Amino acid sequence: MRDYIFKRLLFLCSLLVLLICGGMVYSLVSGAIPAFEKFGFFNFIASTEWDPHPENEQYGALSFITGTILTSFLALVFCLPFSLPVALFTGEYFRGTRAASIIGSVIDLLAGIPSIVYGLWGFYTLRPLMVNLHLSEQGFGILTAAIVLAIMIIPYASSLSSEFISMVPRELKEGAYSLGGTRLDVIRRVIFPISGSGIFASYVLALGRALGETMAVTMLIGNTNLLPTSLTATGNTMASVIANQFGEADGLKLSSLIAIGLLLFLITAIINFIGKMIMKKLN
Amino acid sequence: MNALSHKTNWRKFQDRLFFWIVCFFSGLTAIPLVVIIWEVIRKGYKQINLNFFAETAPSTLDAMLAKNVGEIIPGGIANGITGTLLMVVLAAVIAIPVGILGGIYLAEKPKTLFSHIVRFLTDLLQGTPSIVIGIIAYAWVVVPLSSYSALAGSVALAIMMLPLIIRSTEETLKMLPTSLKEAGLALGSSYSSVILKVLVPSAFGGLFTGTLLAISRVMGETAPLMLTALGSTAINWDILKPTSAVPLLIWEFYNDPNLIDMIWSSSLFLLLLILVLNIIAKNVARKWKI
Predict the structure, then answer these.
(1) Which residues contact B20 (CB under 8 A, 6 or more apart)?
(2) Distance between CA atoms of A65 and B74, rounded to whole angstroms?
(3) How many H helices and E strands in chain A?
(4) How far apart are the first and last CA of chain A?
(5) Has residue B290 got a pLDDT over 70?
(6) Interface contact A13-B102, CB threshold 8 A
């Protein structure tokens, strides 16, 4: 009897995950319906209008979708020259040594810093630097946000790809060495081809992280509801517009913000799904 | 012959060069960490004193008056510390039992369709942006109770902790040898007591580490709390009332020009808290390694 109850309890607890996810989708969709009904699903996605004036409310998500995609992909590009060397450092050159564990701890600590502290650092250290370099007038914008975002996703990109790099079979590497290959040859001709899709998957998952980052981006992107026209222009991401405007929103605006939340949820879910699928194929 | 050795030297040079590039850029990643921590300590240590832990956040006026005469800002972040404590403990109380039991289920029945679905959804939940989880907790708790509350904040944090705990529990239990379970069952113990008295204690280190890491992960979260707990100027222990938290206070200070000096000390406190949790978790993991 006790076993029966215990087994039911285990089942119920895992069922709860299913219920949470189901309830999440239900709540987001039902919250977003008024906005979609008013503007139409595709119109809402394709419109850059964001006008909260009571007589003529107009909401569209395109500016924010663009802002999110721009900052995230830029961050991915910026993080590549750092996370790939770190992955090679900890997964190949110094695998299992003290040096690797030191770099590993640095990366772990980077992952532990809260988003809001990254935001403060970006605001007080990086932003003045951007102004001094004449990259932008006030230092806010897509570029500033993307640089901080890049630092934030280095841990996610590098720790996973390091694992894939260290999983490359030893015999293959030894084979290449015996043919007279240098270490660079081994990395280029053996490690990258074999762990390539794994590394790709870890960058896809890092992208998933970058898409949903909120606080640091909110503090640095400038928070204008316009379509960003250049890399130094200000803008808003989907997450930052929710963080900024949710508090005072009601009615149609609230519904539009929830609709943006739903879109953000869908985009990150798809990106994460792609990453996991690639990794599953490898196993 | 000469040409050949020339080529070999060139390849060796490339190899060395690449090695140093890798080392150089790996080393560069430490710079942001050092700079951030240095900045936070340098600007924050002045404010940290006994009052910092004992008093609530100062009003704009008090801060302005103190600044005008060149004193450090009076007051502290006691309302944030107690709020963080309240919400994190409540979230842990919700998420730890459910997460561990759910993880046990996945480890016990790894191959069924239901387990695959749950595992997939756990990953989905883990990848969900924290701000979206904030919206969810808003819709589930804030709207029905028609008030921002610590409970809503805890629900958001619990939803974020749940997938982390489930996966770490599952991973830890998978590493235990099957003979352990078989031995327990062979001695005639019931299924539930084998799990609760043999498997869970043997996996304790892993479970504890996973839980601590999950707690340290949600402790610095700001975005979901903005939509759920809102913040409060007084110390609040009522889970149905709006409550502050350290990251929420940092956000408030950041938006108030007079209180700017407080952000660094609060960040320093938050960083230290998270760092200590991480170090404890790592040491426990090393000590209790299976």
Answers:
(1) none
(2) 43
(3) 13, 2
(4) 39
(5) no
(6) yes
Nearest CB to B32; choose among A110, A242, A257 = A110
For chain B, the structural domain boundaries read: 1-34, 78-287
Nearest to B129 among A154, A158, A211 (CB): A211
Shortest distance between the Cα of B23 and any Cα of chain A, in A, equals 7
Q: For each of the domains in chain A, give its residue range(s) and CATH number, in order of start.
A: 63-282 (1.10.3720.10)
Indicate yes or no: CB of A212 within 8 angstroms of CB of B131: yes
pLDDT in tens, B201-238: 999 989 999 999 999 999 999 999 999 999 888 899 99
Task: Say which residues have a Cβ less than 8 Å from residue B36's Cβ, sequence separation at least 6.
Answer: A113, A117, A118, A121
CB contact under 8 A, B26 and A215: no
Model confidence, pTM: 0.94
Mark A181-205 as b/e (b = at least 16 C-beta within 10 Å): bbbbbbbeebbeebbeebbbbbbbb
Q: Are B70 and B76 in contact (CB under 8 A)?
A: no
Cα B110 to Cα A74: distance, rounded to the nearest angstrom: 39
**Shortest Cα–Cα distance, A79 to chain B (Å):** 10
Q: Report how far residue A73's alpha carbon sits from residue A67's, in angstroms, rounded to the nearest whole number.
A: 10
Show the low-confidence residues of chain A (pLDDT under 70): none
pLDDT at B270 over 90: yes
With CB atoms and an 8 Å threshold, state whether A24 touches B136: yes
Q: Report the Cα B263 to chain-centroid distance in Å.
A: 19
Q: Is A69 exposed, middle or buried (0-12, 13-18, 19+ CB in 10 A)?
A: middle
Distance CA B102, CA B166 (A): 6
State yes or no: pLDDT of B141 exceeds 70: yes
pLDDT, tens only, A192-236: 999 999 999 999 999 999 999 999 999 999 888 889 888 888 999
Domain B78-287 is found in CATH 1.10.3720.10 = yes
φ, ψ at B189 (rounded to 5°):
-75, 155
pLDDT in tens, B162-195: 999 999 999 999 999 989 989 999 998 899 999 9
Q: How many Cβ pairs within 8 Å bridge chains A and B?
A: 239
Written as six digits, the tokens of A113 are 């810093």
- From the list A112, A123, A213, which residue is nearest B274 (CB)? A112
Q: Is A50 helix (H, G, I), strand (E, B) or coil?
A: strand
The pLDDT of residue A247 is: 87
